[in-house]
Amino acid sequence: MKKRILHCAMAMAMTAGTGMLSISQSYASSHREAPNITRMPKVDSTDFYMFNSYESGREGFVTLLANYVPLQDPQGGPNYFSMDPSALYEIHIDNDGDAKEDLTFQFSFRNRLSNNGNGISLNIGPDSDKQTVAIPLKHAGGIGVSAGTANLGFLETYTVTMVKGDRRKGTKRRISHAETGARRFTKPYDYVGEKTFGDGAAYESYASQYINPISVPGCGEGKVFVGQRKESFVVNLGETFDLVNYAPIDGLIDQSKDNDDLRNKNITTIALELPVDCLTSGSDSIIGGWTSASLRQTRVLNRRASFAKPEFNKGAFTQVSRLGSPLVNELVIGLKDKDRFSVSEPKGDGQFATYVTHPTLPALLDILFREAVGSTDNIAPTNFPRNDLIAAFLTGIAGVNQPKAVVPSEMLRLNTAIGAVPASQQSTFGVAGDDLAGFPNGRRPGDDVVDIALRVVMGRLCHPVPVNGVDTALGFCEPGQAIVGTVPFTDGAPVSAADFNEQFPYLLTPIAGSPN
Question: How many Cβ atoms from other residues are within 10 Å of residue 218's Cβ?
Answer without folding.
Answer: 9
